[in-house]
Structure formats: C-alpha cells, structure tokens
Design brief:
single chain, 568 residues, alpha+beta, Beta-Lactamase, five-stranded antiparallel β-sheet, 15 helices, 49% helix, flat
Amino acid sequence: MRQRNSMRNKMIPAFFAASCIPILIFALISQIRLWKSTETLLKTRAEEDIAKANQCLDMILDKYETILYDVTTDDEFITLVEEINENKEKEEVNGSKLRRQFAHVCNRHIGVEGMQVVLKSQKRFFYDRFVSSSVESSWILQVPVERIAVQTYYVDPVQSGTQEHPVFHILRKIIDYRNINKEIGYVILSVDLSVLTDAIVAGNTEEEGNTYLISENRIFLSPSMQKLGQNPDSISKKGMYTLQTENTTSGWEILLVWKMDAFYREIMAQFLFWTAVAFVILVLLIILLSRFTRPIRKSVSQIVEAMEQMEAGNFQIHLSPGEKDSLEIQKIREGLNALAEHTDDLIRQVKQSAIEQKNAEISALEAQIDPHFLYNILDTINWKAIENEQYEISELLVSLADILRYAIKNPGEETSLQAEQEWLEKYLLLQQAKLGEPIQAEFYVEEELQKYKIHKLLLQPFVENAVKYGFHGKEGEHKIKIQVQNAGQQIHIVIENNGIPMTTEEIKELNAGQEQKNHVGIANVRKRLKLYYGEETKLYFQGVEREQEIITQVHLFLPCEGKEYGMG
C-alpha cells in the first residue's frame, strides 16, 4: 500500500505527460544550421575585437613602462639612490632631490598619480600628485612592495585621496650600472586605472558587448561601476558570448562578453511560430502536472506552515497523516513531529537551568561585601593614620577610596576626559608609592575636549603596563605623558612613557593584534574598543627616538561625532 502511494509512483504520470517535449526538439532541429553560422560569425568578430583590446592595452602599458625605464636608467637618479644607501647624512637632501624628480614626472604625464622609490633598507621616498605632497599620503605608503616585487603589475584596492581613486602599480628594479648583478632598490609608478579605458572601449564596437579587465580573479576595470571588485563569475553569461585571453605584458585577463541579441534577431522571427506551439504544449503539461501534484502540494503546505510555527517558537504542534500522502511525505511528517517534541523538551530543560543559574547568581550577590562597608573601613583606617600623624598613609588611603568609588560605581558607563584624568592622577599616586620612586605625569588635553565622553578605565591598562613593565628596573626619571587632541572626525589620544622600550618584534605583534603573555590587558582593551565603538576606532604602538632615548607611544583614535560618542 505504501509502495503504491510513494512519490515516485505519483510522479510517473507527470513525467509521462512530459514526453511531448520531443516535439519541441524536432522544432529546434530546423534552426541548428542557422545557429551554427551565426555563432561562427560572432566568434570571428569577437576574436578581432579582443585582439584589438589586447593590442591597445599593450600600447598603454608600454607608454608607462617607457616612463619608468627613463627614470631607472638616468645616471643622476641612480647616483642619488646609491648615495642615500651609502651615506645616511645626505639622506634628506638627496631624498628631496628624488621627490622633485618624481613630482616632475607625475605632473608631466597624465594618469601618473604617484611615484616612489623603495630602498634596500625598506625606506621610502615618494610624491603623491593627488594631494600634491611629498611628505604625507593617505594611500601611497600602503602599497604592498612585497606583492609587486613578485608580479611587476599590481592592481591596488587602496584608494588615493579622499575619494574613490583606484590605481595600478608598475614596479622596476634599480640596477647599479657599475655592477649589473646588484639591486639597490625598486621604483614604483602608480597610475590611474582610468587610463585603461581605451582598452575597454576597443572591445565595445557598435555597443554590442562589454570588455572587462581581471586581476587575481577580481574585476578591476569595467564599463559598469557596479561590477568593480567582484568575481568574474558574477557577470551574467545568459544570452552572452564570452571570450577570454591573457595579456602577456601584465598577466591580466581580458574578458569579452558579447550580447547575442543583435545576431539572433533573424532566428527569433522563425522561432516565434514554434514558440507558440511549445506554449500550448506547456499549458497542457502544467494542467496535467497540477492535477497529479495537488495532494503533494497540499501536504507540503501543511508542513511549511508547521515549520513557520516552529520558527516563531511554537513547538507544541502535531501533524496528522494525510490519506493521500506518499511514503516520503509521511516520513517527513513523523520526523517533524519528533523534532518538535524533542525541541520542546530541550527548551523546558534550558529554562529550568537558567532559573537555577539565576538563583545561584542572586545568592552570590547577596554574599558580596557591601561597597559602603569598604568605604567606611577605609575612612576609619584613614582617621587612625591622621591620629598617628601618618599623613602619607592618609593621602594614599584617600586616593585608594576615590579609585574604588570611581571604578565600582556604574562600571562600564561613560565619563568625561577630565574625570578620567583626575582618576589616573590618583592611580599614579598609588603606583608611585608601590614603585618606591617618583613618577612624573603630564596631561595635555585641549580645553574643548575636557568634557569629551569615553568609557571608564579605558586608558588605565596602558598606564599600568608602562609602570609594571617599563619602570621596574629602570634607572633615572620615570615620565608618563598623555596628550589628547582633535583630529577632525576623531579624537587622537597619545600615551607615552620613557620606560624600558619594547622590542621591534613586540610592537609588530601588538599592532598585528597578537596576544602576548605580558600584555593581556591590551587584548581586553581591543575587545572593549570593538564593543563600544565598532570599527570606528584604531589602536597602534610605536617606538620613537627622542633625546637619545626610546619613547614608547600608544596611539588611540576614537570617533568624536554622533549621538553616542559625542561631546557631553
């Protein structure tokens, strides 16, 4: 009985009705020869256009290769690079000469957005035409030299300036003309991607198709801005003829996607008749399939409705078996009933566990010491110290009480920079007593930022690390400096100390977000920053040489606009 009601047996009549499809196949046979001839013509014209685009791309790239070749073979340029590598004292003078050369190249040639030299010491000298600067750049220092050194041509996702301004880079090695086997650095030419538009247009004759440039399986140049940065698979191939080739100069792929509509208009005129015949057949097929699948669709609708109830949180459901259900539908009903029952049991167990856990938490809270008890005890000890003329102890107790009161009251709430500074001063007073040596603390907060809101104890881990790992075992003065200034859309906080400096490797690991044994608090701060401010914050570490000593700096950028993080 069940075998007779299986879905397989119910679908046999529907598949039998579909046997009329060979009629459609017969109708298409008459069109095969026309299709083949049309596709041959399409292929020939597409090959011609993609070859034209490839040739145009070679010409454009050759232009900028020539510019780069002229620079790297110039005797004055090579001499300047050699002097910078060998004589650090003339580094700034020669660097300025290099920048002037780069500025001349960028301003003389259309499309050149920036130029830089990377020495064997990894030091860079550059010129950014977009901002007319040789001193600062928002993008040029992010150019990945390691990547470009491997592939010569590299399409950079970095955007120059303040607007979307994609570029590609061409790299050329600097060879010592006295020793051709000696590499002394690299020169990188950054070119606006828009100069490659001519190569794109070459494949768009008569508006019959689109041409794309692809690098590392990513579209970087397209007639449509919506396709930029996407995978080539995102391009619709339906009704299109595609042809792809590699540009041997750059290693980029040229993809031609040609619209087939113009070539198939004649075919469509002959195909309309057979389309009408196919339509009639499809209507009949739909009627037959609808009749045979109606019980199945009814059962499936019931199952879907039950699943929606479960999704809404109602697991107290039960699906009754249908008279015309197939074996497969019956199995689904039984499985869904079992799942609902099991899930309902699990929910009851979880709720019971949550109640028990909450009761345990309440019991633990009731067992906690009242903070007022601590304040009163500290106050009593303070008066004892005053009575015994232990004024230093009294001062430390007062600071400790204020620190506890500040930290315990409403933890995680926002406070002003002014309040945070006052708390840090008291905190450093206790750390100074613990260290046994004076700590010189300096705070520089712009007046308009005094009331800027930050979360409590956000800066404390950095100060604690400075005292704990920087000042212990260090001779001489112990200095901590905190500076807060407005940086446009952000607040820039710099925390620096003159303690024992971190190694270059430690700074690198911290900036990479790697947790370290001695800096667990930093990892917690990163989590708090992400929780409080999302991706609108930045944190990095830096070692700066100042007055013959290494100063460790922490740079923290916080958003300064918005309802949630604004001034208060």
